[in-house]
Structures are given as structure tokens and as C-alpha cells.
Amino acid sequence: MIIVMKMGATQTEVDEVLTRLTNGGWKTHVSRGEERTIIGVIGDERKLEPGTLTQMEGVDRVMPVLRPFKLASRDFQAEDSKITINGQVIGDNKVVVMAGPCAVESLEQVLETAMAVKAAGAHLFRGGAFKPRTSPYAFQGMGEEGLKILAEARRQTGLPIVTEVMSPEQVDLVAQYADVLQIGTRNMQNYALLNAVGQTRKPVLLKRGMMSTIEELLMSAEYIMSNGNHKVILCERGIRTFEKYTRNTLDINAVPVLKELTHLPVVVDPSHATGRWTLVKSTSKAAVAAGADGLIIEVHPNPAEAVSDGEQSLKPKRFAELMVEVRRVAEAVGRTI
Amino acid sequence: MIIVMKMGATQTEVDEVLTRLTNGGWKTHVSRGEERTIIGVIGDERKLEPGTLTQMEGVDRVMPVLRPFKLASRDFQAEDSKITINGQVIGDNKVVVMAGPCAVESLEQVLETAMAVKAAGAHLFRGGAFKPRTSPYAFQGMGEEGLKILAEARRQTGLPIVTEVMSPEQVDLVAQYADVLQIGTRNMQNYALLNAVGQTRKPVLLKRGMMSTIEELLMSAEYIMSNGNHKVILCERGIRTFEKYTRNTLDINAVPVLKELTHLPVVVDPSHATGRWTLVKSTSKAAVAAGADGLIIEVHPNPAEAVSDGEQSLKPKRFAELMVEVRRVAEAVGRTI
Amino acid sequence: MIIVMKMGATQTEVDEVLTRLTNGGWKTHVSRGEERTIIGVIGDERKLEPGTLTQMEGVDRVMPVLRPFKLASRDFQAEDSKITINGQVIGDNKVVVMAGPCAVESLEQVLETAMAVKAAGAHLFRGGAFKPRTSPYAFQGMGEEGLKILAEARRQTGLPIVTEVMSPEQVDLVAQYADVLQIGTRNMQNYALLNAVGQTRKPVLLKRGMMSTIEELLMSAEYIMSNGNHKVILCERGIRTFEKYTRNTLDINAVPVLKELTHLPVVVDPSHATGRWTLVKSTSKAAVAAGADGLIIEVHPNPAEAVSDGEQSLKPKRFAELMVEVRRVAEAVGRTI
Amino acid sequence: MIIVMKMGATQTEVDEVLTRLTNGGWKTHVSRGEERTIIGVIGDERKLEPGTLTQMEGVDRVMPVLRPFKLASRDFQAEDSKITINGQVIGDNKVVVMAGPCAVESLEQVLETAMAVKAAGAHLFRGGAFKPRTSPYAFQGMGEEGLKILAEARRQTGLPIVTEVMSPEQVDLVAQYADVLQIGTRNMQNYALLNAVGQTRKPVLLKRGMMSTIEELLMSAEYIMSNGNHKVILCERGIRTFEKYTRNTLDINAVPVLKELTHLPVVVDPSHATGRWTLVKSTSKAAVAAGADGLIIEVHPNPAEAVSDGEQSLKPKRFAELMVEVRRVAEAVGRTI
């Protein structure tokens, strides 16, 4: 941590900061520049609240030096984490594709979609039984009945199931049926929920908050990991910006940034990141070209009848075309799919 | 809802949209412009998923016309809601000030602060017993012990207590001690939590998500209200923007916008909205000048020792000065404090 | 400037950075922490391109310590700048109000508005003769004819004129007629234009770019000042965020932040910052309460007939009401108007 | 254009809006819904200022239906524009790569870089002689001497030159030397400059403003085109968001969106869009996978000595590696390079 004193800060003010730090167990070094005095703090800055120093007289700014995440960091583990899900490995050379409808609507809809995405080459099946909806008047999901439908789809297709869990008390129930527990974008900083899934040993698909920084995403992963569950899959799903033409802005930069900062696998959700089905194929190819370890894509047998997110869902035929094109890009970057 | 067809959409494509709408029970009217055909939908558009129409051939865009919130809307209730909290009324002429530390740290700290803010004229006492923290390694709050300390502060000062609840299973516990249940910014769209507080009859202080639009804030209020609890206090606490000098950007526009759109009371949190104590006084005055019904302000007897948010906490003496200056502004806009 | 080395950076890598800095004339000091080595740079960091160091092996990050502006800084000049415009002083105790239509449309429109805003207590008259418009098909302003109309309004009312200049070759022409040269939000980083107005001795009203940070605003002021023209008035006019209900988000925090960082006067434009006339009165009061030195407000005798920005223009009667209410707030914060 | 009346708007208010529109030459149709009355406007809405209607009594909102750009629109021209630059064609099957240093620093630096990027397969050479810099104290470019150096590089390598023009009075000078006139991100809405380059017949590389919408980018293209110069190349170069880890956020969605909305070629600048050289290769591959027609990449023989943007410049050897990998991706999406 670096403490920048104000221009004209007095020696007494500098001394008080030094005393405060020394009493707290940190070592310090002082550098007097032409314009300002700067104090470096040696020791574990993660234990030091920057705000408490900002309040001291003569202090202008406090700048953290270390990144606040540890277990999720590449410094902590250099090699890529590989997470095994019912025989599918994510974080390895193969790009893993998860596909399925936004919401579970019926057994028929789920089976039809699951068969279709399997035939097209998808590796996992996704679908929501509990749905976070902006409006209390919108369809909220089929609940446990939906989970049973998902389990039936797994039985018939062999595809592992990814499904969302929305609150701590649902975790046990959802974990009975799901192979991967999904944390949605609005719950990325729902710490009670992060702790709850951290106490299971199920892989967790952690979606980035739509207005959360990359560092915050890694801190939320750290919450899960610090509970003992290291099987965290990070998901870039678009962030909120001033651009209005698309529902969100896919932060493609986040893919190589995350590969630099962390050993955890990174998948991309082009359906939510664009909000328009016509953009899903292009951005899926971009995600794989940028180094994503997987994709999660909304597919619906009849998007015009979907109870939610129809505008961003692909028909099975278009999903099959996407798989063909994405496969070529995967091969061009030295990966299989 | 307005459906804009693509240039060159065929009659068959238009007819299919019309059939779809008619079968769903909506009335339609068609307008053929020089460049495009436009279809208006008559009936409750809140029941119509826009996405399903976007998927139809020949459709360019779907534009909602109605606002999606009802119970929270001024159209639904024209007069201001007044919410009574242990004798304090919020939403009336008096500007209500809630003050206290970010986190409950000890009985001494809480009592010292509560006495000081009461002496300065605050109406409610705020403090966190359960703390949502970005880092799993940071102080997470004192839990129920903290709630007991808050109750003791109420006993000694008479100030009603505002404190945060972070998960559905905590609601009963927190409601035993608190006068107002606070939903934090990261939980604004934690729907399980919104439903849980909606089932109590305690006033709820709903903080705007740092990434949420005004409309989404009102939809989250709608969640609580649709569960039967109409005592919702909205809180503007700063939004996330590209500006880096301040922790957040106080969206002062949101104050008059909310007063237009809803009958619910609106308070402002200048501490989080700026993240720097030197900016709290100016922005508190701005909030009251803009029409806020209340303020929620962080005060700590010794911010340089605070376990969290020290950089934005006021010392009691500065809070007392703030109250004097804010009172003048309140009077200038025809209100008391 | 602080250079943070990567974990595991070698001594050779550290030495190469030190050599590079020493050769460039900077002094250095090295601090070896538990996890990382940190190098402090002593000397004028404004001459050091951070990017060049980021490229060196073993370097993780480079963090600037000093602010990049000088002439505009409070460190450089502690007391407030007062700028005199034809007898009106901005930056002093009196809150200065500039009012008038978005665009000059006719002599009648201008005179009618100028008389009305003068009667209501405005101190300067604003109006655009050259108009930056998003569309090439929209009205682009009356040009020199509009400037002559503005001059006639000054002759008849005595109000000094604020008007926009859009390109370097217009500066001489506009300066013949105007009392204050306005730089619009889209031109805040049009450096050729900043240099050109910097070479006049006319006061400049510099609008913050809708996409620009506070620091960038001050750097643009620095451009003008480094050309010798120190008469710069800063204008917060709303920034672009994800919020869609308002045209922009008024960054009210920027008012006290600028008062901390710079000695230059700060005015607020609530018309553009909200984009809706119904919000202008509330936000004008907020701006003055927060410490603004002035306001710039769009007024049109018949907004429903305005050629631009009608949705955010006040009728003269509403402007007069605004002045009454703003005056009360100004007095409550110890200022006149 | 759709006009949504307020709930409870009177018949008189509706009639006044209708009269206003009829008098202006528009046809109208009225639709009375359960909650609100809606008025559709038939005719060229681009001539109607929405703001003027917002001011009328009883009007709640005005929603444009048509897109405001014409010449740039795919509706206007369905087939892709192909722009020829000294034998290089952009907008065709071949992905065009422009590479070179941020700033021209010397003849040696330019020749060395130009030879290297040509050898690696680049098609155009880029370099700045006039440099827009945030600080007035930073290097501002070599000016005409820099242009001469660029011309010499073209003579020796045959690579056409892309270079920035910053103000209308520079256009003639820069056009003497350059093959493509670049408009920088800060000048995307410098309308005097857009008009000036629109009056030349040189191809223009128009960079998206860092906080401009896709629609605004197309409106700026429309400015150039409406002056008679249809040779506009659009450039996505990253937008400003809340994410701090990267300098900007590459809006990869913008690539397929622009290909839908316009016939103009689209290139991506991964250097500015990330601000970190380690991210340039991944995002270049993503851009081509998403359908970009070209790339513009910063290359410097010794980035650690660059006078600007060193942190995002590639060494020639890394650029050559990038070209190899990007070529594979281009082929995977059916293109050459």
C-alpha cells in the first residue's frame, strides 16, 4: 500500500501516519519527492482498511498495491484448473459448450431441446427451474418440478445439467439434481449464497455481475473457494454500458485478462451478452478465438413461444450451424470442441 | 406495445404477427408509413414477452409503451406515501435523517455515536450487524450480538434502528430487533430476499443497485409491495460510472425523477454515493435541495479506526455541522428537519 | 510514480528498470515487500511515459502519484479565481445565472427571451449561433447572422453574451461578438480549438465532455491556460451512464470535487444534465446547494416550437419561478444571486 | 414517431397534438388503449424535433421509430461497400491489416517499423504526425515533417499511409501526404472536421468516440457522406466503461451490429480497445472471428522507448506472430488476409 501525503503535509502529520502503521505491525519506508512525501507500507495490506488512513490529517490518497484475491490468483496456482463434470472436463484443451433453454417450460420442450443440442455437439445441458425475473408478475420458473425434468433429460441424453440456484435455502435441493450450480449475474455478490455453494462440492458456474469489475468477479470466486470449494467456472455474460442497441456489451477483453489473472476456467455467454439472437454466432466465434474455455448458449425449439429471453434464443437448426462454424475457429486456435 | 416491421416486410409476415397477437387475446391496429409498417398492440402488454415477437420474420423491433411497475406508480396512487417508524414519519414535510456507523463494532462505539447523532438532530440510527463485504477476508459483522447492541442503543436514545438483512433466513431474526429492514445495493435484485421482506410488515429501506436503472429499482419495490408490504423507502446511493475520482456517482436526477414516477419516499445516501467524507456535506445539501425526503449518513466516533468505510464516515462534530447547514437548505425549500 | 514488479521478478529485471530510470535522470528507491518489489520514482513524473515502463520485463503495473494538471490546480493557486465578464464576476460570492435559448432562431425570439430572463434576474444571456448537431440534416444554426442578433440583445439588455465556438477558424469571428466563448461537450478534447481559444483573452466556458473524467476536464482547462488564457469557467453538464430515463446523469459530486481540486469557477447546466424540463428546477437548486458558482439554463419563449432541445427548455414564467426558489437556496448556503 | 399520452390526458390535449402535427404536414392515427392514448405519426419523422412535442400538455413520451441515418444504412444500400486505397480493397473478402507506431518519432523508427510490418504481411502503414494528447505538456507530434517521413516510408515499402487529421485547416495538408485520413475518437463529433474531410475524396477512417453509441458513429459517418464522400471506414476502438483493469472495453458486439446496420467496412483497433499489449493478440483474433473487415494495430520497434502508447504497442516480432495466428482464424471464417 502506498500513502500519498498532501503537498505541504507537515512532519507531524507524516509521523502520525508512521506511528499508526508501526503500531499496527506494518513496516514503512518514506520517500520525499519534490512535491510530496510518499509512504510505502510493507506487510499484508489486505488486513489494512485504506479508509482509515484516508481520514488522517495530511493524507491525500491511499493506493493499494496488491490484488485482493489469493486462491483464485495465478500467483497462487500457475497451472490451469481443470474441472471435471460427469466426465466432461472444463479448463482443458476442449472447448465445452453448454446449451439449452432459458427456462424449463415442460418435459417435451426440454427433451426436444436436449436431444437437439446433443446431436449438434453440445457437452452440457442448461435450463432454469428457478428464474430471477425483473418483474414479480413474470413467470418465476417451475421450481422442483423443473429440476426433475432436467434430471430426466440427463437420464435420456447423458448430458450433465447446469441450472441456477437463487438462495441459500435452495442449495441442497438444487444440488440433488444439478451437476453444476449456476450463480446468476444479479447474485454475484449475494454473499450468503456464495458461502452456501462454497460449502457444497459441486462445480459452480459464477456469472459476472452485469456491472461488476473483473476484480470483483474474482473476489466472489474467492468467497466460494475460501469455503473449500475450488471448482469455480467464471462466466463473462456482458456488462452494462451506455450503448443501447444491444442488451449488454460483451467484454471480450475479460477473456484474456482472466486467463492472465486466474487459473480458473472462463466461459462466455453470448446470448445474454448481446441480447439478440442474430449476434450470437459472431460473438461465439469471437469468444473462442479470444481463448474462452467454453460457451453457454440459449437454444429453444420455438423461440417465438418462449416464456423468457426468446429474443436471444437460437432455434436448434441455427445452433447446429453455429457449432459447425465455432468448431472451425476452435481448431484455428489449436483447440477441439 | 409497438411493433416496428422491417423495411420490405411482406404482407404475409405482417399477417403472421397479427394472427399471433389476435390468438393471444390482444387487439391490434396497423399503420403503414412511407418506410415501414407499424403494429400497435392494445391490451395488457405486461403479459406479452417482447422477445417472442422479435423472433418472428419481418419484425425489426418491439417497443414497450407502458411502464412495467404498478403498485409503486404515481398513476396507481397519486398522493405521497407516508411511512411511520416508531413515531417518525418519512415521506412527509419533515426531512428524516438516519445516521450511524457503517458497522457495529462494540457497545461503546454504538452508544457514543447514537448519543452524538441524536444530539445533533438525527431521527433514526443506522448500523450494520451483518455486513456484505467484497472480500471474504474482511470483517463480516457481529451478527446477532450486533443486533442486541443496536437494540440497546434504541433503548437508551429512543432512536429507531435501521439495519441490513442479507438473506431470507435472517429476516425473522433481524426483524425482531430492527425498526427498518435495509436491503443493500448488491441485493436489490435478490428476489428471494425481496419476497421475504415483503412478507413482513416492517418498513424496508431499499437501496438502488449500483448498476440498476430507476425502473429496475421500482420493479424491486414492486416485488416487495406485491407481497403485501407497501412500506418501501427508496434510497439513491450512487451509481457506477466511468468517473474514477469518486467511489460512485450520486444520481441526483433520480430524486426528482422518482418523485414524478412513484408515491414512495426517497432518501439519499451521500456517504456511499461519494465515498469520501469531504464530499458528504455538499451532497447532503444538494439532496435536500433536490427534494429528498431523507438522508442516511455514516458517522463514526473515530473514522481512522473504523473497521469499514472509514474514508466516507464523518466525525460526530462534522455531522453536527452538517445538520446545521442542511437544516437551512431544508427550510429554503419549505421543509423542516 | 510507483512501479510494481511482478511476483518472482528477478534481480536483473529490477536492475534494468533502475538503470533505465537513472539514465533518464530520475532518482529511485526500492522497497522489497513480502510478495513483490516496488520501485518509487522521484522527480517530475509528468515527463515519464508510464507505458514505456510497462513494456519492461518483470514489471506488473505502473501507478502515477501526481496529478497531471498544474496551472488549474489548487496546489498551484490556493485562492478562488474570480473572472470578470463585462462587470459580472464569476467565482465570487454571487451565483451567476446564464440563461437563454439553445439556438438563436430569430431576432424576435432572442429579444423576447433576453428581456424575460433579465427581468427574472439572469446575469448573462446564452444562445447558439453555431450548433453542433448529431444529425447533418438538423438545423445547424444561423451563423454570423445569429451572432449579430446576440449582439443586439446585449445592446438592448446589457446582458453579456455566452455563445459556442465550434472550430479554430471561427474563434476570431465569434470573439468579435461574444463575451464568453463556450466550448461544447463534444469539443472538450478538440485540442486545436482549445489552443485557439487559449490564445484569445476572452473568458472560456468549458463544458465537460459527456464521456470525460474530472481529471480530463482539468487537463483541457490546462490546455487553454498553458496558452496564456487563465479565464476558464468549468461546466458540469451531465455525463453518460447506463441510466436511460434521463438524457444524461448530472454528476453532482463533481461540484465539490472540482472545488477541492481547482481554483477555477464551476457552473452547472441542469438543462443538458437532465434533458427534461420538469427536472431542471430541482437540479438547479441541488447545484447551488452543492456549491456551484453559477447555472446555465435553457429558456425558450415557446419550447414546443423550438428548433432544438425543446424538451429541456423552460418557458420564461417557469424560469422566473426557478429564480425565486434558487435564490432561497443560495441564501441558505450563504450566497447571493 | 409514436407519441404516448399521459394517463388521464384530456381529449383537448390529444386534439392539440393532432392539430400541431396536421399543421406540420404529418398524417396521424390515434389508438386508445386501456390505460393510455397513443398517437402514431406518418411522414418523415427525421424532420420533427421530438422535444417540441414533449413540451405539450398531456404528452408523456415521444418515441422515434425510424433510424436517423440514411446514406450509411443497409436499407439504403444492401451490398457491402468496397473501398479501394492504392490497390488495397477494404470491405471485401480479404481482412486488411494496418500497422505502425502510435506516433512518428524519426525516419529511422518509421522505416524500420514499416519494413517489419510489411514483411509480416500488413497491408497499410499507420502512424501519427499530429497527435491528440490529453496533456498539453506531452509530445504533440512532428507535424508536416512527420507527414514527409510517412510519405518516404510509402515510397520505400509501397504501403499506403493512414494518418490522423485533427482540425479542418489541416485537412488539405494531411490529404497531400496521406492515403487514408483518420478521425480520432475525441473528434468523432467534431462536425467542422467531419464536414472538411467530407469535402475531400480521400477514404476516411472514422474512429468511434470512446463514449459514443453505434448510432452516433453512424450519424458521424452520415456527416461525411452527406458532403459527398462515401468512402468511410468505421473503426471500433473500445468504449469507456466502469471496468478499470483495461484502458477501454472492446465492444465486440459492435462488429456484427454494424454489419447488420450499414454497408460500410468495419475495422477494429485492439491496441486502444485494450490498452495492454498482452491482450492485443487474443482480441485481434476475436475481431476477425466476429467478422471485422480489418485491424489497426500499434507496432513499435522498441515500445519501452516509445513517446506515446508504449504499453499497448507490439514489438515487430510479436506482430509477426500475431499475423500468423490471425491468418488461421481468418481462414476459419472463410476469409483471406
Instruction: State the assembly state of the protein chains.
Output: homotetramer
User: Largest chain interface and its two residue counts?
Assistant: A-B, 54 and 53 residues
Which sheet architecture does the biggest sheet of chain A show? 8 strands, parallel, barrel
The ordered string of helix (H) and strand (E) elements of chain A is: EHEEHEEEEHEHEHEHEHEHEHHEH
Low-pLDDT sequence parts of chain A: none
CATH topology of the largest domain in chain A: TIM Barrel
Classify the helix fraction of chain A into a percent range. Answer: 25-40%
The tally of structural domains of chain A comes to: 2
CATH superfamily of the largest domain in chain A: Aldolase class I
CATH class of the largest domain in chain A: Alpha Beta
Fold and architecture overview:
Chain A has helices at residues 11-23, 50-54, 107-120, 144-157, 171-177, 191-198, 214-226, 254-261, 270-274, 280-290, 316-332, and strands at 2-5, 27-32, 37-42, 59-63, 83-85, 88-90, 96-100, 124-126, 161-164, 180-183, 204-207, 232-236, 266-268, 294-298. Chain A has 337 residues and is of the alpha/beta class. Chain A has an eight-stranded parallel β-barrel, surrounded by seven helices. Chain A is elongated, with a radius of gyration of 23 Å. Chain A starts with a strand and ends in a 5-residue tail after the last helix. At the A-B interface, helix 2, helix 6 and helix 7 of A face helix 2, helix 6 and helix 7 of B.
